[in-house]
Design goal:
The chain is mainly alpha-helical. It has helices at residues 2-10, 29-44.
């Protein structure tokens, strides 16, 4: 990669870079983690059979914070009386 950068800096067209012929090794990270936990527990003398990964229980939702609502007396205000005006 450094050769490509250097060539571009000098204004020369960089040569084609060949891709690796073999694909990389794919690692199962969860399996590696399980094995690591199991080995650590065995080293401490704990029961390694319990190192199995268990699904987490869903957590209870916290109650939502609602704004305080003012309570009214429940009585409605009387309707306004309108009087008919006569034209003079």
């Amino acid at each position: 990669m450094e050769a490509v950068i250097q060539a571009k800096a000098e204004g020369v067209k960089p040569s084609e870079v060949e891709a690796p012929s073999e694909p990389g090794r794919v690692v199962d990270l969860m399996a590696a983690l399980r094995d690591s936990v199991r080995a650590a527990k065995e080293a401490r003398g704990e029961n390694a059979d319990r190192a199995e990964v268990r699904p987490m229980r869903p957590q209870k939702k916290a109650p939502s914070k609602k704004t305080a609502v003012k309570k009214t007396s429940g009585k409605k205000a009387p309707a306004k009386k309108t009087t008919k005006r006569t034209a003079s």
